[in-house]
Amino acid sequence: MKKVITAVNHPVLNEYFKKNCPDFLVEREDVKSQEELMELIKMEIPDVLVLNDELPGKHDRKVLIEKIRKIDRYFKIVIIVSLLDQDYKYFLNSKGIFDILVNDNAQISDLVEVVENEGRVVVKIEKEIPKEVKEEIQTLKKLLSEKPKVIEKHVIIEKAPKTQRQEVIAFAGPGGVGKSDMLVQIATLVARISQARILCIDLNTEFPTLDCFFGVSRQPQGIDYFIGKGKDASLNYMIDSIDKERFNSNVFEEMVVKHQKFANLDVLTGNYSLYDCQNTLNNRYYEIILSKAKELYDFIFIDTSSNIFLDSTQFAVTNATRVLFVTEPTLTSIRKTKRMLELFIKVWDVAKIKIQILTNKVNNQSLDKAFVKELLAEFEVCRFIDYNQKHDYCLNNGVPFVIKATEKETEDFKKIVENFNFVEKRRLIDKLFSKKTRIDKKIVEDGGILYVD
Ligand SMILES: Nc1ncnc2c1ncn2[C@@H]1O[C@H](COP(=O)(O)OP(=O)(O)OP(=O)(O)O)[C@@H](O)[C@H]1O
Ligand SMILES: [Mg+2]
User: Fold this and answer.
1) CB 306 within 8 A of CB 179
2) Does domain 167-418 have CATH number 3.30.450.40?
3) Ligand 1 atom closest to 389 (CA)
4) Which residue's alpha carbon is at the smallest distance from atom 3 of ligand 1?
């Protein structure tokens, strides 16, 4: 039995649950104020709280949620909101609230479903009649003046979801500026907010680090044979299977390291053998591996070495659809940046338009932002990321920074990700609702006035 508290300032839901939901233990009356709610959950944490975010009280809606989460961070909250913009949704998600019912058009049956459900659900209900339907009504109105008074019409009201486009994004830049770190934050965010299948390839064939940043093992979980010292990473195993002519999609899936927290995120861990880096690895392998990855994943993030004389760096940068070039706001870093970018464009023939610059580790001693932009005027300097000691803490604990970061600290990464082409996660109720996309509407004309049933 699920212990449920309703705090919606209206008895109807509470009564409905008590009468119709034998699996819900609803001991309390509906809670009518924020103060009453705080007192109650200080005494007992329910399994599920159904909360109206406009519950009367002195706090604004965000403060109220923060106060509730201070008492207990984990219990399930189903929230009914009147408006849901992207910022508010991120805020709710960051507080572990994924069950969101938008506006009072939501049905009680939706609520029951959400409370019963273990998964995360977002409901978005269209309030307005979409433009296409309005136009269709106009046309029909004309027709109706000659035709019979009542007609049946099928109307599609929800647009089909956009399709996921593939992106291959390489992270490049001078040594130690935060290439791997930025890749990990961005890939983790995309994994969190989309259903895209994501692969992070560690193509820093000299000093791979993605396994440390993600907190995953370098050796793929299902592999129990040994192919040599420093060769216990996905990349080496894949190369071994290419040599043995048994490389295929199944082998690929077996040899990537799965992220424990995000089922849609895999890591292709990198070569650790300096001998192999110099003598074995080459573009032929990278080509075979990348082309297989493109069959299997929507987003491929590639980490590179700062060493421009390695084939792997050139391969990643020239095969990417987008290059995120990471730099620091110091004179030496900008100087290296300019030289590396000149090489990318003039020698490697990379289109300028593909390159975006992330200036990382900004602090109060850094070069002025306007000056950095001026120095790199030919390029799009897309974001400045603050220096934050938490990055080292996260690295040393194998947790991506964006998982530990506050909402404000995550903002810049979110802005970067918003430019990518991804389809947002569709949760249970979205899917339920999308079943209703094809709706029979009865259009009735009555004395010149038109109604849609
Ligand atoms: N915004 C930041 N604030 C503070 N520290 C940061 C920030 N970004 C990265 N770091 C730290 O900087 C160090 C270097 O980062 P990282 O390994 O990602 O750099 P890199 O460019 O990939 O280096 P390499 O060239 O060796 O591959 C790490 O200790 C990381 O935690
Ligand atoms: Mg690195």
Assistant:
1) yes
2) no
3) 4
4) 387
